[in-house]
Design goal:
- The protein is globular.
- The strands form two sheets. It has a four-stranded antiparallel sheet, with no helix packed on it. A three-stranded antiparallel sheet has the order 1-7-6, with no helix packed on it.
- The chain has 112 residues and is mainly β.
- The protein has one domain.
- The protein contains no helices and seven strands.
Length: 112
């Protein structure tokens, strides 16, 4: 059971774009994988397709952005493995055990 809400990622489909709805608004996220340096990157655009931030390198435990640039989502999104087992983002674990967690969200927890 996930402790935080996550953004779905499908490495096998990269590069691709998808609409992401967050509490702060709706955005287009474009996901890419560079086979040479084995890094994932994300571009974020508004609904009109205007780039807000491009080339964000996905690193485990590091927020996707640390600046409060106008247009960026207010949420903090952190690539993480909630079990604590994975320490790097790889093609084999991204979207499986390593996810884009929305920090501060409650995910699948219930009040039972």
């Amino acid at each position: 059971m996930a402790l935080r809400d996550t953004i779905e990622v499908v490495p096998d489909d990269m590069p691709y774009s998808q609409e992401i709805t967050l509490d702060s608004g709706v955005y287009f996220f474009t996901f890419q994988y560079n086979k040479i340096d084995q890094q994932f990157t994300i571009d974020i655009a508004d609904l009109e397709g205007n780039d807000i931030k491009t080339g964000i390198v996905v690193m485990a435990g590091q927020p996707l952005w640390t600046v409060n640039k106008p247009g960026l989502p207010a949420e903090t999104i952190i690539p993480m493995d909630e079990s604590g087992n994975e320490t790097e983002v790889t093609f084999g674990n991204f979207g499986d055990t390593m996810n884009l967690a929305i920090d501060g969200s409650e995910g699948d927890l219930s009040d039972t």
